[in-house]
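Milestone 3.1: sequence recovery, worked example.
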């Protein structure tokens, strides 16, 4: 069964190249979910004409603004403008609900007093174990990134296909476990050769390329150095609005 992947946002934290923060939307036969939902994701969805009310679940790799800070904006519009009337599942690291509530209150003081008319189901994903989320099998693997974010790479099984996203993080031996036999490996590739703490660069990806074992790999989350090289490397590189079918 075909699974569609839409790179709604493919940029880094700083909008390099005018790209939106990470928001990877996946359509299965009866579920639509995103992997991450960065601060600019609502803008990116609106630009593509995608109603955020159509999203069933948001899966988060970690709690950094360029991967999760779009959620308060989405929820506020879901309550006030879009009038969402169907459940929403948000799954991610430990203390997920409290941390997103704190972020929402900082961005929109008083938002904590608003009561949505739709159910929000917060699911804390157990690292290293398969988690069932709306018929998806979501397996997080510990990532090497800012520890306060509880970072993970996510392996998601949907309709017989496997999509793995590295999230942010340097190389670890767990990454090939997350990517083994995956139909698609979406790899953060922040820089080309410059080593940056807690991130992958192109040279590191090349060094371990044979270990990943995925059928297809697409590079994303590119900073200035890597983005300048994107047309020169043989690997596929994401851009905002890229849609592929698995």
């Amino acid at each position: 069964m075909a699974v569609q992947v839409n790179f709604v946002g493919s940029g880094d934290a700083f909008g390099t190249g005018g790209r939106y923060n990470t928001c990877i939307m996946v359509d299965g036969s009866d579920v639509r979910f995103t992997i991450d939902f960065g601060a600019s994701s609502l803008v990116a969805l609106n630009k593509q004409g995608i109603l955020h009310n159509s999203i069933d679940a948001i899966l988060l790799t970690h709690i950094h603004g360029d991967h999760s800070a779009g959620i308060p904006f989405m929820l506020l519009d879901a309550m006030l403008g879009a009038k969402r009337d169907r459940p929403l599942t948000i799954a991610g690291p430990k203390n997920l609900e409290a941390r997103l509530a704190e972020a929402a209150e900082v961005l929109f003081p008083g938002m904590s007093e608003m009561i949505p008319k739709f159910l929000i189901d917060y699911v804390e994903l157990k690292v290293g174990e398969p988690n069932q989320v709306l018929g998806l099998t979501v397996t997080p693997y510990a990532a090497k990134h800012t520890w306060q974010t509880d970072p993970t790479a996510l392996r998601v099984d949907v309709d017989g296909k496997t999509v793995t996203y590295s999230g942010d993080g340097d190389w670890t031996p767990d990454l090939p476990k997350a990517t083994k036999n995956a139909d698609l490996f979406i790899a953060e590739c922040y820089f080309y050769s410059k080593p940056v703490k807690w991130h992958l660069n192109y040279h590191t990806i090349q060094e371990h390329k044979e270990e990943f074992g995925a059928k297809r790999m697409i590079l994303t989350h590119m900073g200035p150095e890597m983005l300048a090289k994107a047309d020169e490397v043989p690997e596929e590189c994401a851009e905002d609005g890229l849609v592929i079918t698995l």
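The chain has a mean pLDDT of 97. The chain has seven helices and 14 strands.
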